[in-house]
Amino acid sequence: ASIKSPLTKFLPLGLGLLYLGKQESVEATAEVSKTFNEKIRKYCDLTLLSCAYAGTGNVLKVQNLLWNCAQHLEKGENYQGPAVLGIAMVSMAEELGLDMAIRTLEHLLQYGEQNIRRSVPLALALLCILNPKINVMDTLSRLSHDTDSEVASAAIISLGMIGAGTNNARIAGMLRNLSSYYYKDATLLFCVRIAQGLVHLGKGLLTLNPYHSDRFLLSPVALAGLVTFLHACPEMKAMVPGRYHIVLYFLVLAMQPRMLMTVDENLKPLSVPVRVGQAVDVVGQAGRPKTITGFQTHSTPVLLAAGDRAELAMEKYIPLSPILEGFVILKENPDYPEDS
Fold it and tell me: Is the pTM here over 0.70, yes or no?
Protein backbone atom coordinates (compact mmCIF):
# COMPACT_ATOMS: atom_id res chain seq x y z
CA ALA A 1 0.00 0.00 0.00
CA SER A 2 1.19 3.52 -0.68
CA ILE A 3 1.72 5.82 2.31
CA LYS A 4 -1.38 7.81 1.27
CA SER A 5 -3.67 4.76 1.39
CA PRO A 6 -6.05 4.87 4.39
CA LEU A 7 -5.04 1.32 5.31
CA THR A 8 -1.33 2.12 5.71
CA LYS A 9 -1.81 3.41 9.24
CA PHE A 10 -2.97 -0.07 10.31
CA LEU A 11 0.55 -1.45 9.72
CA PRO A 12 2.16 0.45 12.64
CA LEU A 13 -1.01 -0.14 14.68
CA GLY A 14 -0.81 -3.90 14.09
CA LEU A 15 2.80 -3.80 15.28
CA GLY A 16 1.76 -1.77 18.34
CA LEU A 17 -1.05 -4.17 19.26
CA LEU A 18 1.51 -7.00 19.57
CA TYR A 19 2.97 -5.04 22.51
CA LEU A 20 -0.35 -3.87 24.02
CA GLY A 21 0.35 -3.13 27.70
CA LYS A 22 3.79 -4.81 27.55
CA GLN A 23 5.68 -1.61 28.55
CA GLU A 24 9.52 -1.90 28.26
CA SER A 25 9.50 -4.91 25.92
CA VAL A 26 8.57 -2.59 23.04
CA GLU A 27 11.92 -0.77 23.11
CA ALA A 28 13.80 -3.09 20.70
CA THR A 29 11.01 -2.78 18.09
CA ALA A 30 10.85 0.99 18.65
CA GLU A 31 14.57 1.19 17.74
CA VAL A 32 13.92 -0.76 14.52
CA SER A 33 11.07 1.63 13.63
CA LYS A 34 13.62 4.47 13.45
CA THR A 35 14.93 2.94 10.20
CA PHE A 36 11.56 3.30 8.41
CA ASN A 37 10.65 5.86 5.74
CA GLU A 38 10.72 9.30 7.40
CA LYS A 39 7.05 9.93 6.51
CA ILE A 40 5.88 7.03 8.68
CA ARG A 41 8.73 6.79 11.21
CA LYS A 42 7.37 9.18 13.83
CA TYR A 43 3.81 7.87 13.37
CA CYS A 44 5.00 4.32 14.00
CA ASP A 45 7.11 5.36 16.99
CA LEU A 46 4.22 7.08 18.79
CA THR A 47 1.72 4.30 17.95
CA LEU A 48 4.11 1.72 19.46
CA LEU A 49 4.65 3.86 22.57
CA SER A 50 0.94 4.49 23.19
CA CYS A 51 0.03 0.80 22.72
CA ALA A 52 2.85 -0.48 24.95
CA TYR A 53 1.87 1.78 27.86
CA ALA A 54 -1.94 1.59 27.36
CA GLY A 55 -3.81 1.37 30.66
CA THR A 56 -0.68 1.85 32.81
CA GLY A 57 -1.19 5.49 33.84
CA ASN A 58 2.56 6.15 33.26
CA VAL A 59 2.95 9.92 33.80
CA LEU A 60 6.30 10.19 31.99
CA LYS A 61 4.85 8.67 28.82
CA VAL A 62 1.90 11.09 28.92
CA GLN A 63 4.46 13.92 29.24
CA ASN A 64 6.39 12.60 26.23
CA LEU A 65 3.19 12.36 24.14
CA LEU A 66 2.19 15.91 25.15
CA TRP A 67 5.61 17.18 24.11
CA ASN A 68 5.02 15.66 20.66
CA CYS A 69 1.65 17.43 20.47
CA ALA A 70 3.39 20.76 21.12
CA GLN A 71 5.66 20.48 18.04
CA HIS A 72 4.93 22.42 14.84
CA LEU A 73 4.67 19.97 11.97
CA GLU A 74 6.56 20.01 8.70
CA LYS A 75 4.36 19.65 5.63
CA GLY A 76 3.06 16.12 5.15
CA GLU A 77 3.66 14.91 8.72
CA ASN A 78 0.70 13.42 10.57
CA TYR A 79 2.05 11.82 13.74
CA GLN A 80 0.15 13.98 16.25
CA GLY A 81 -3.12 12.03 15.88
CA PRO A 82 -1.73 8.85 17.53
CA ALA A 83 -0.01 11.02 20.18
CA VAL A 84 -3.39 12.51 21.23
CA LEU A 85 -5.03 9.07 21.27
CA GLY A 86 -1.98 7.80 23.19
CA ILE A 87 -2.62 10.32 26.00
CA ALA A 88 -6.10 8.80 26.43
CA MET A 89 -4.84 5.21 26.17
CA VAL A 90 -2.16 5.67 28.84
CA SER A 91 -4.24 7.69 31.30
CA MET A 92 -7.56 5.78 31.10
CA ALA A 93 -6.33 3.51 33.93
CA GLU A 94 -7.57 5.42 36.96
CA GLU A 95 -10.09 8.10 37.83
CA LEU A 96 -7.73 10.94 38.77
CA GLY A 97 -5.47 10.58 35.71
CA LEU A 98 -8.59 10.38 33.58
CA ASP A 99 -9.90 13.75 34.84
CA MET A 100 -6.49 15.35 34.35
CA ALA A 101 -6.28 13.98 30.79
CA ILE A 102 -9.72 15.48 30.01
CA ARG A 103 -8.46 18.91 31.16
CA THR A 104 -5.29 18.50 29.11
CA LEU A 105 -7.31 17.64 26.00
CA GLU A 106 -9.38 20.83 26.52
CA HIS A 107 -6.10 22.80 26.33
CA LEU A 108 -5.07 20.93 23.18
CA LEU A 109 -8.40 21.93 21.61
CA GLN A 110 -7.67 25.59 22.29
CA TYR A 111 -4.01 25.74 21.35
CA GLY A 112 -3.39 22.68 19.16
CA GLU A 113 -3.15 22.58 15.37
CA GLN A 114 -5.92 21.26 13.13
CA ASN A 115 -4.73 17.63 13.02
CA ILE A 116 -4.70 17.60 16.85
CA ARG A 117 -8.26 18.97 17.01
CA ARG A 118 -9.39 16.09 14.77
CA SER A 119 -8.15 13.50 17.27
CA VAL A 120 -9.24 15.17 20.54
CA PRO A 121 -12.91 14.01 20.29
CA LEU A 122 -11.72 10.42 19.74
CA ALA A 123 -9.44 10.62 22.78
CA LEU A 124 -12.34 11.95 24.87
CA ALA A 125 -14.47 9.02 23.63
CA LEU A 126 -11.88 6.52 24.83
CA LEU A 127 -11.56 8.20 28.25
CA CYS A 128 -15.31 8.39 28.91
CA ILE A 129 -16.52 5.32 27.07
CA LEU A 130 -19.93 4.26 28.47
CA ASN A 131 -19.64 7.07 31.03
CA PRO A 132 -21.27 10.24 29.62
CA LYS A 133 -19.78 13.00 31.80
CA ILE A 134 -21.64 16.29 31.38
CA ASN A 135 -18.54 18.42 30.61
CA VAL A 136 -17.30 15.96 27.95
CA MET A 137 -20.80 15.74 26.44
CA ASP A 138 -20.92 19.54 26.13
CA THR A 139 -17.47 19.70 24.52
CA LEU A 140 -18.40 17.02 21.96
CA SER A 141 -21.73 18.72 21.27
CA ARG A 142 -19.84 21.94 20.51
CA LEU A 143 -17.34 20.14 18.25
CA SER A 144 -20.09 18.31 16.37
CA HIS A 145 -21.03 21.65 14.74
CA ASP A 146 -17.40 22.45 13.82
CA THR A 147 -16.63 23.96 10.40
CA ASP A 148 -14.07 21.18 9.73
CA SER A 149 -16.11 18.11 8.73
CA GLU A 150 -13.45 15.71 10.08
CA VAL A 151 -13.67 17.26 13.57
CA ALA A 152 -17.47 17.13 13.36
CA SER A 153 -17.61 13.48 12.25
CA ALA A 154 -15.15 12.45 15.01
CA ALA A 155 -17.24 14.32 17.61
CA ILE A 156 -20.49 12.68 16.42
CA ILE A 157 -19.01 9.15 16.59
CA SER A 158 -17.54 10.02 20.03
CA LEU A 159 -20.97 11.08 21.31
CA GLY A 160 -22.19 7.60 20.39
CA MET A 161 -19.25 5.94 22.14
CA ILE A 162 -19.52 7.80 25.46
CA GLY A 163 -23.20 6.92 25.59
CA ALA A 164 -22.74 3.35 24.33
CA GLY A 165 -25.73 1.29 25.44
CA THR A 166 -26.85 3.85 28.04
CA ASN A 167 -29.95 5.07 26.12
CA ASN A 168 -28.89 8.50 27.42
CA ALA A 169 -31.80 10.84 26.61
CA ARG A 170 -29.63 13.94 26.31
CA ILE A 171 -27.23 12.37 23.80
CA ALA A 172 -30.15 10.84 21.87
CA GLY A 173 -31.70 14.34 21.64
CA MET A 174 -28.41 15.85 20.44
CA LEU A 175 -28.09 13.20 17.73
CA ARG A 176 -31.68 13.74 16.55
CA ASN A 177 -30.92 17.47 16.19
CA LEU A 178 -27.69 16.67 14.34
CA SER A 179 -29.49 14.38 11.88
CA SER A 180 -31.75 17.26 10.84
CA TYR A 181 -28.77 19.69 10.85
CA TYR A 182 -26.66 17.52 8.52
CA TYR A 183 -29.46 16.09 6.36
CA LYS A 184 -27.66 17.19 3.16
CA ASP A 185 -24.21 15.78 4.06
CA ALA A 186 -24.20 12.01 3.45
CA THR A 187 -20.98 11.24 5.38
CA LEU A 188 -21.94 13.16 8.51
CA LEU A 189 -25.50 11.82 8.40
CA PHE A 190 -24.04 8.31 8.25
CA CYS A 191 -21.92 9.12 11.32
CA VAL A 192 -25.04 10.32 13.17
CA ARG A 193 -26.80 7.04 12.35
CA ILE A 194 -23.84 5.00 13.65
CA ALA A 195 -23.75 7.10 16.83
CA GLN A 196 -27.50 6.61 17.34
CA GLY A 197 -26.99 2.87 16.97
CA LEU A 198 -24.21 2.94 19.57
CA VAL A 199 -26.27 4.91 22.13
CA HIS A 200 -29.09 2.35 21.87
CA LEU A 201 -26.70 -0.61 21.63
CA GLY A 202 -28.66 -3.84 22.02
CA LYS A 203 -31.70 -1.74 23.10
CA GLY A 204 -29.57 -0.61 26.06
CA LEU A 205 -28.54 -4.11 27.17
CA LEU A 206 -25.01 -4.06 25.71
CA THR A 207 -22.10 -1.71 26.24
CA LEU A 208 -18.58 -0.99 25.00
CA ASN A 209 -16.12 -1.34 27.84
CA PRO A 210 -12.45 -2.39 27.86
CA TYR A 211 -12.49 -2.66 31.69
CA HIS A 212 -14.18 -5.35 33.75
CA SER A 213 -14.19 -6.61 37.37
CA ASP A 214 -15.10 -3.21 38.86
CA ARG A 215 -12.74 -1.35 36.47
CA PHE A 216 -9.87 -3.40 37.91
CA LEU A 217 -8.86 -5.53 34.90
CA LEU A 218 -8.29 -4.38 31.33
CA SER A 219 -9.34 -6.65 28.46
CA PRO A 220 -6.61 -6.33 25.79
CA VAL A 221 -8.94 -7.72 23.09
CA ALA A 222 -11.63 -5.11 23.81
CA LEU A 223 -9.07 -2.27 23.94
CA ALA A 224 -7.48 -3.46 20.67
CA GLY A 225 -10.90 -3.35 18.96
CA LEU A 226 -11.64 0.17 20.23
CA VAL A 227 -8.19 1.52 19.34
CA THR A 228 -8.34 0.04 15.82
CA PHE A 229 -11.71 1.70 15.26
CA LEU A 230 -10.48 5.05 16.64
CA HIS A 231 -7.38 4.97 14.41
CA ALA A 232 -9.71 4.50 11.42
CA CYS A 233 -12.00 7.40 12.37
CA PRO A 234 -9.80 10.28 11.05
CA GLU A 235 -10.15 8.71 7.57
CA MET A 236 -13.94 8.63 7.94
CA LYS A 237 -14.70 9.59 4.32
CA ALA A 238 -12.57 6.76 2.89
CA MET A 239 -13.61 4.25 5.54
CA VAL A 240 -17.32 4.41 6.14
CA PRO A 241 -19.15 5.47 2.97
CA GLY A 242 -16.17 4.14 0.94
CA ARG A 243 -14.69 0.68 0.54
CA TYR A 244 -13.55 0.03 4.10
CA HIS A 245 -16.80 0.21 6.09
CA ILE A 246 -15.99 -3.27 7.45
CA VAL A 247 -13.68 -1.51 9.96
CA LEU A 248 -16.83 -0.74 12.01
CA TYR A 249 -16.95 -4.40 13.01
CA PHE A 250 -13.86 -3.97 15.21
CA LEU A 251 -16.19 -2.44 17.80
CA VAL A 252 -17.76 -5.88 18.34
CA LEU A 253 -14.59 -6.93 20.22
CA ALA A 254 -15.45 -4.49 23.03
CA MET A 255 -19.17 -5.25 23.30
CA GLN A 256 -20.39 -6.98 26.43
CA PRO A 257 -23.69 -7.24 28.33
CA ARG A 258 -24.49 -4.51 30.86
CA MET A 259 -26.66 -6.67 33.04
CA LEU A 260 -25.97 -8.82 36.07
CA MET A 261 -27.46 -12.30 35.56
CA THR A 262 -27.47 -14.84 38.38
CA VAL A 263 -27.66 -18.58 37.71
CA ASP A 264 -27.62 -21.65 39.96
CA GLU A 265 -25.01 -24.42 39.83
CA ASN A 266 -26.85 -26.10 36.93
CA LEU A 267 -26.70 -22.74 35.02
CA LYS A 268 -30.49 -22.27 35.30
CA PRO A 269 -31.56 -18.60 35.73
CA LEU A 270 -32.12 -17.72 39.37
CA SER A 271 -33.87 -14.49 40.42
CA VAL A 272 -32.51 -13.12 43.70
CA PRO A 273 -32.74 -9.67 45.32
CA VAL A 274 -29.59 -7.52 44.88
CA ARG A 275 -28.70 -4.04 46.06
CA VAL A 276 -27.40 -1.76 43.30
CA GLY A 277 -25.76 1.58 44.08
CA GLN A 278 -22.77 3.82 43.43
CA ALA A 279 -19.48 2.02 44.05
CA VAL A 280 -17.32 3.27 46.95
CA ASP A 281 -13.55 2.80 46.98
CA VAL A 282 -12.82 0.80 50.17
CA VAL A 283 -9.19 -0.18 49.46
CA GLY A 284 -7.12 -0.10 52.66
CA GLN A 285 -10.05 0.74 54.97
CA ALA A 286 -10.27 -1.12 58.27
CA GLY A 287 -13.17 -3.35 59.29
CA ARG A 288 -16.01 -4.10 56.88
CA PRO A 289 -16.84 -0.74 55.27
CA LYS A 290 -19.88 -0.29 53.02
CA THR A 291 -18.93 -0.92 49.38
CA ILE A 292 -21.94 0.86 47.83
CA THR A 293 -23.94 3.97 48.66
CA GLY A 294 -27.45 5.17 47.80
CA PHE A 295 -28.58 1.72 46.76
CA GLN A 296 -31.91 0.37 45.51
CA THR A 297 -32.99 -3.26 45.79
CA HIS A 298 -33.92 -5.07 42.57
CA SER A 299 -34.38 -8.67 41.51
CA THR A 300 -31.89 -10.07 39.00
CA PRO A 301 -31.39 -9.76 36.07
CA VAL A 302 -30.56 -6.07 36.63
CA LEU A 303 -28.75 -3.42 34.54
CA LEU A 304 -25.60 -1.83 35.98
CA ALA A 305 -24.75 1.73 34.91
CA ALA A 306 -21.22 3.20 34.83
CA GLY A 307 -19.80 3.34 38.36
CA ASP A 308 -22.48 1.04 39.79
CA ARG A 309 -21.83 -2.01 41.92
CA ALA A 310 -24.13 -4.80 43.09
CA GLU A 311 -24.20 -6.94 46.23
CA LEU A 312 -26.56 -9.76 47.23
CA ALA A 313 -29.39 -8.65 49.54
CA MET A 314 -29.87 -12.13 51.08
CA GLU A 315 -27.59 -14.73 52.64
CA LYS A 316 -29.37 -17.77 51.24
CA TYR A 317 -26.87 -17.97 48.36
CA ILE A 318 -23.10 -17.53 48.14
CA PRO A 319 -21.70 -16.07 44.87
CA LEU A 320 -18.79 -18.01 43.37
CA SER A 321 -17.30 -14.75 42.07
CA PRO A 322 -16.20 -11.91 44.40
CA ILE A 323 -17.35 -9.31 41.86
CA LEU A 324 -21.00 -9.27 40.79
CA GLU A 325 -21.17 -8.39 37.09
CA GLY A 326 -22.03 -10.28 33.92
CA PHE A 327 -22.99 -13.91 34.66
CA VAL A 328 -22.56 -15.00 38.29
CA ILE A 329 -23.05 -18.56 39.59
CA LEU A 330 -24.67 -18.80 43.04
CA LYS A 331 -24.55 -21.83 45.33
CA GLU A 332 -26.77 -22.41 48.34
CA ASN A 333 -25.37 -21.36 51.68
CA PRO A 334 -25.13 -24.51 53.87
CA ASP A 335 -25.30 -22.41 57.08
CA TYR A 336 -28.52 -20.65 56.07
CA PRO A 337 -31.36 -21.57 58.51
CA GLU A 338 -34.22 -23.19 56.59
CA ASP A 339 -37.08 -21.68 58.63
CA SER A 340 -36.06 -18.08 57.75
Answer: yes
For 54-93, b/e burial (b = at least 16 CB within 10 A) is bbbbbeebbebbbebbeeeeeeebbbbbbbbbbbbbbbbb
Geometric angle at alpha carbon 64, from 59 and 160, rounded to 5°: 75
Q: What is the DSSP letter of 90?
A: H
Is residue 181 within 8 A of residue 145, CB to CB? The reply is yes
Residue 121 Cα to chain centre, angstroms: 12
Q: What is the pLDDT along the chain (340 residues), one digit of tens a residue?
A: 455 677 778 888 898 889 888 888 888 888 887 788 777 888 888 899 999 999 888 899 999 999 988 888 776 677 888 899 999 999 988 888 889 999 999 999 988 888 888 899 999 999 998 888 899 999 999 999 988 888 999 999 999 999 998 889 999 999 999 999 988 888 889 899 999 999 999 898 898 889 888 888 889 999 999 999 998 888 777 776 677 788 888 999 999 888 899 999 999 999 999 999 988 888 888 888 888 888 889 898 898 888 888 988 888 899 998 888 888 999 988 888 876 5
* Burial (CB count <10 Å: 0-12, 13-18, 19+), residue 99: middle
181-219 core/surface letters (b: 16 or more CB in 10 A; e: else): ebeeeebbbbbbebbbebbbbeebebbbbbbeebbeebb
What's the DSSP call for residue 265? Answer: T
Burial class (CB in 10 A: 0-12, 13-18, 19+), 231: buried
H or E segment at 311? strand 308-312
